[in-house]
Structures are given as structure tokens and as C-alpha cells.
Design goal:
Order of helices and strands: HHEHHEEHHHH
Radius of gyration: 18 Å
Strand content: 5-15%
Number of domains: 1
Structural class: mainly alpha
CATH class: Mainly Alpha
Low-confidence stretches: 146-167
Length: about 170
């Protein structure tokens, strides 16, 4: 089980990178890291910078700078956290959601093209793959970043509040 699981991790990572390389369209001008951040905000929003940093396993200052880039482009908003004025909540704008959806469509076209050109696989295989992956993602995990409680987290020092960019 562990060897197959390791292979799944390896192959899903390779697939993601291959789709990024092979896709074409407007989203190819957006760095993969930016698309990943847009996707995380989409999944977790409204979310604090601290929760995003934990989810991406980076520092709060690094995430704060990345979120500032999304806000500058008009792809995300930062609003005061009503439960903790020292932090803010990040959400996607319609433009940010549009960039993310465009990137997903472009990559989906690559996947669909591969399935159409491979006589060994058909739409049922694709549906099975999607169902299996969805089932894995729907399972509760003890390592999931608790974004709903993170929004209410109080920084323990003024430095943490500064790192969130709200001090």
C-alpha cells in the first residue's frame, strides 16, 4: 500500500507540472506559484495570512508578500478580521477567480486531449480517477490546516501581528 501511495504522490506531482508546461493560453503568463496561491485562497477563504502560510508551509512574511501581490493585481481582497482586528481575511475577487478558472480550463483541455488520443482509456476511466481522487480528498485528515478556527486565532506577540501586516 505504501509503495503504491508513494507512486500516486509522485505521479500526481508530475501530472500537475506536465499540465502546467503543456497548457496554452492566457494563464501561462501567470507563475505556477501564483496559481497555487489563488487555488489555496479559493479553497480556504476567507482565510488569514497565518493559515495560508501554514497551508503552504512558508513563513507569514513570505505569505504576506505573496498575498500583497494578489491584492495589487486585483485578484484578492484583504479585509479586517471581525473576530480579531490585528489580522485580516483574504478572499478572491471575481477577477482572481476568473484567472484561476481559466488556468483550470486550459489544463483540463490538455487532460481531455490525452484521454481522447489514448485508445487504452476512455471517459469511464477518467470518471473513475476523478471519483477516487475526490474520495481521498473528502476524507478527514488530522493534518488538515483548520482554516475556520485559524480566522479566530490571536497572534501571541506583536511581531506576529506585524507579520500579518495588520499591526
Amino acid at each position: 500500500m505504501e509503495e503504491l501511495s508513494a507512486e500516486l504522490v509522485l505521479l500526481t506531482g508530475r501530472l500537475t507540472r506536465a499540465l502546467t508546461r503543456r497548457s496554452s493560453g492566457p494563464s501561462t503568463r501567470v507563475p505556477a506559484a501564483t496559481l497555487r496561491l489563488l487555488s489555496q485562497v479559493d479553497e480556504l477563504a476567507p482565510v488569514t495570512i497565518g493559515a495560508l502560510a501554514a497551508s503552504d508551509r512558508c513563513s507569514q512574511p513570505t505569505m504576506s508578500a505573496a498575498v500583497a501581490g494578489l491584492v495589487e493585481r486585483g485578484w484578492a481582497t484583504k479585509v479586517a478580521n471581525p473576530q480579531d482586528a490585528r489580522s485580516s481575511l483574504v478572499s478572491l475577487t471575481d477577477d482572481g477567480r476568473g484567472v484561476l478558472l481559466q488556468a483550470r480550463r486550459e489544463r483540463a483541455q490538455v487532460v481531455a486531449g490525452h484521454f481522447r488520443s489514448d485508445p487504452r482509456h476512455d471517459e469511464r476511466d477518467l470518471a473513475t480517477t476523478v471519483a477516487v481522487l475526490r474520495g481521498l480528498l473528502d476524507q478527514p485528515s488530522s493534518t488538515t490546516v483548520p482554516h475556520t478556527t485559524e480566522a479566530t486565532r490571536t497572534p501571541t506577540t506583536s511581531e506576529e501581528a506585524e507579520e500579518e501586516g495588520t499591526a
